[in-house]
Structures are given as structure tokens and as C-alpha cells.
Amino acid sequence: MKSMDKLTTGVAYGTSAGSAGYWFLQLLDKVTPSQWAA
Length: 38
Prior knowledge:
pore-forming activity, single chain
């Protein structure tokens, strides 16, 4: 059971980090001028 808990926590954390990173990139793309978004 311990290893399953670790796996679930790892997946949840990875998903959260991925979503946060995607959101940050989207925000950065909106804030920066298109010539800097290369």
C-alpha cells in the first residue's frame, strides 16, 4: 500500500506541476511581445 500511495502522490504532483508550467507559459506568451516569444 505504501508504494501505491507514493505512486498516486507522484502522479498528482506531476500533473499539478505540468498544469502550472503550462499556465505560466500561456501567461508569459500573452505578456511578452510576439517578437520575444520566438
